[in-house]
Structure to design on (258 residues):
């Protein structure tokens, strides 16, 4: 079992994971070359991928998908309406373009797609199950809905958005319309809201949580970590035992191998 956050942030997102011998890439928001290089760096290869799962159609999640799929002929699963927004779909091999339903079995992994709130046409997060293990990927969400909260329950590993610090966003360089978009219920999750979601969620003891999709203008790794840590501690969580926090970066791989 392994997970490698190849890139996370507004400049591109890609997560590689392997459970029970099944290897998946969630999003391909960096170049094909970077994905190939990143997988090689962690001892894997694109040729070993069983499939690619797409959360939504924004460029920072599909930037490398066109070249990657045409070069390697990898099956890609996305919502029907999401496919409708991917302009290069007609260039991809027809049998690689698979429609994503609410449930999917790929090799040894059972997958549930759940709705999230974001300004994309049909964005989703993923629950991935293997034997007794549950991994969750939930980024690019304006708020934690009841469905997202249920998806986070009993997770052993979570990749959760912790996009911005509220004060840094408020005082930062973005124009007001963009600040409002980020703060909206179809925008991005703040450090505070990520922490509250974790505090109200019953994850498995020792769950690993990757704080993901950090804004490079309105957040810092240390700020996200300290905010989430402090709020979890206020709720009686023993950080480091009950929940283990991990940073992510736009240009550095973060890995966990078990």
């Amino acid at each position: 079992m392994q997970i490698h956050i190849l890139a996370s942030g507004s400049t591109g997102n890609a997560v590689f994971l392997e459970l029970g011998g099944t290897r998946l890439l969630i999003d391909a928001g960096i170049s094909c070359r970077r994905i190939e290089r990143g997988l090689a760096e962690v001892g894997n290869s694109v040729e070993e991928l069983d499939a690619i799962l797409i959360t939504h159609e924004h460029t920072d999640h599909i930037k490398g998908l066109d070249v990657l799929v045409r070069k390697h002929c990898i099956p890609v699963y996305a919502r029907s309406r999401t496919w409708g927004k991917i302009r290069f779909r007609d260039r991809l091999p027809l049998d690689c373009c698979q429609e994503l339903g609410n449930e999917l079995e790929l090799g040894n992994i059972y997958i549930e797609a759940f709705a999230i709130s974001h300004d994309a046409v049909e964005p989703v997060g993923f629950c991935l199950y293997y034997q007794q293990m549950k991994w969750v990927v939930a980024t690019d969400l304006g708020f934690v809905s009841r469905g997202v909260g249920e998806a986070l329950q009993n997770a052993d590993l979570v990749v959760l958005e912790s996009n911005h610090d509220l004060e840094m966003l408020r005082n930062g360089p973005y124009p007001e319309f963009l600040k409002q978009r980020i703060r909206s219920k179809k925008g991005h999750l703040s450090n505070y809201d990520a922490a509250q979601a974790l505090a109200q969620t019953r994850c498995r003891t020792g769950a690993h949580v990757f704080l993901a999709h950090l804004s490079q203008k309105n957040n810092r790794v240390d700020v996200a970590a300290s905010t989430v840590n402090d709020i979890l501690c206020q709720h009686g969580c023993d950080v480091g035992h009950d929940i283990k926090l991990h940073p992510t970066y736009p240009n550095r791989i973060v890995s966990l191998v078990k």
Summary: The domain at 2-252 is CATH 3.60.15.10 (Metallo-beta-lactamase; Chain A).
